[in-house]
């Protein structure tokens, strides 16, 4: 696992709100994290936890309005992405920062051939000629394991299966050799055996190309197999962040602990009854003045209603945003 | 091992086939068929949960719907509670509908957005009973209590509920007529992990309380391991393996089951790093043009010559553990796996 070094991406205090008819929705609340070169950061959370919105905010993919980025900074190679303006951002997107979306059917354009869609970023960002771009496109399709690549350039997205389409998406994202790849639930729409193929491919590609990856998922199993470091999100906030082994072995936040217990596995102990997290995730209409998890938390006390806990360091590279200390089974003194 | 003979078979499916015709050309002539479910047989015992797993397109949902006769089946028999419904006409079948119900995958799509919760839940009561309005409302309230919905919300509309609550509405509707058998078609696939556990626990509680029998269709192998007593694995329209839960997860026999289980990521980094993964190459073939011989022969890591020509028959390797694979049917060519399997069979028989 790569350690230290200057982060390729440094996000501080990012705040995103959506303006809706029923008021402001605080989708992302003071989210801070960094991404080291060559590292794979897993982002886990349920739907509505703000994981996708955070990543879309970073690279200006949210429609404004209704979205509004209220503050914070996103430093990528010395530039603040929130300040550089749309033209410069467009240059970075697709060349320095690649993006893979969840659903490969809706994110590929059905009326253009796959070859055209891979060549587009190559010609736009790298200034390659038509024939150079085609040669590179064939290389890319071979890299992601699509057989008979040269012929398949002429095919349309619907002629590919789900797993193959996701490979095409990854090829497009990798086209310009990005420093950062953001993958938003890239295997959620796929079957398990196909998911296993894509995960294996991702491991190979990271070894070959050495880019840093942000992998968004709700599947703790996927995270356990692929991530170096994990960030857990809940209610638009980062509630815990730790190296992958540390997080699974020694979870500190009650939400992380509960989440790990609700997930059954195909091996290991089989429990008679599943542990549940009672209640529903919060609707983020109120400004965050209290802990977002307090209503579903088994350890909540008076302070959790009054204050929103800040992230405190609980171990090497490990922090959690909670007033409760699982080691002493009582309130945490610091902070 | 469960003692099969002592338990009553509530559902018996024999040689079920569900083929959908393909029409093409200017004359829309019949040019082929999609063999969504191709000759499968299984039983569901009273009070148990049979898990039906497989990847998308393997025919598991079609199988569930065909068992309830939501389709007119191509061939085979389906007996529920001693009544043969496979060939029954829909009008007669209507009288038997109350004993078999279904919970659908997408609670958004399976609840009418213009009906209140009370009307949704009481619709089966209107169709099949002569209850007065007062009795109907009492029954609706009783059902809402049973699935953990606040009865004050009876006059609300589906969009006012979250995904997990909507699934509870769907379950309440399925329970309205006191069914014996419920087909749950991916009931938790659309829900978040923390909500999935709530719905699964509810289904288990209801089963204990009401003695329900489930056919639980899912692609989530870890959740099926939790809820099912026995598990059937489908691939391309066929059941490739059927076994009691613990046997299936501990000692899968069919190469597809092995690959499927090894592909499921484990939520534990130390297990994940040690895991020997069987990565299948390629994609599932089209069910309109399945390969010759065994359906899995195009992707099987242990494929042999015979697999490409002869369709394997189903054999019982241990009591209640069935699989359809040439590794276990061939006695002339003794492969290593074969010997292991036979030894396992021997020890199982001795253990009885």
UniProtKB/TrEMBL annotation, chain A:
GO terms classed as biological process: peptide transport; transmembrane transport
Transmembrane segments annotated in the record for this chain: none
Compartmental location: Cell inner membrane
Keyword terms: ATP-binding, Cell membrane, Membrane, Nucleotide-binding, Transport
Claim: Repeat is one of the keywords in the record: no
Any one GO molecular function term: ATP binding
Domain of life (superkingdom): Bacteria
InterPro entries: AAA+_ATPase, ABC_Ni/Peptide_Import, ABC_transporter-like_ATP-bd, ABC_transporter-like_CS, Oligopep_ABC_C, P-loop_NTPase
Residues in ABC transporter domain copies: 9-260
One Pfam family recorded for the sequence: oligo_HPY
Cellular-component GO terms for this entry: plasma membrane
Membrane topology value: Peripheral membrane protein
SMART domains: AAA
Family from the record: Belongs to the ABC transporter superfamily.
NCBIfam families: oligo_HPY
Protein name, entry field: Peptide ABC transporter ATP-binding protein
Source species taxonomy: Bacteria, Pseudomonadati, Pseudomonadota, Alphaproteobacteria, Rhodobacterales
From TrEMBL, chain B:
Membrane-crossing residue ranges in chain numbering: none
InterPro entries on file: AAA+_ATPase, ABC_transp_ATP-bind, ABC_transporter-like_ATP-bd, ABC_transporter-like_CS, Oligopep_ABC_C, P-loop_NTPase
Membrane topology: Peripheral membrane protein
Example of a GO MF term: ATP binding
Family matches, as PROSITE patterns: ABC_TRANSPORTER_1, ABC_TRANSPORTER_2
Main location: membrane
GO BP terms, alphabetized: peptide transport; transmembrane transport
Keywords assigned by UniProt, alphabetized: ATP-binding, Nucleotide-binding, Transport
Location of this chain's protein in the cell: Cell inner membrane
One annotated Gene Ontology cellular component of this protein: plasma membrane
Record-stated family: Belongs to the ABC transporter superfamily.
Name of the molecule in the record: Peptide ABC transporter ATP-binding protein
Species: Actibacterium mucosum KCTC 23349
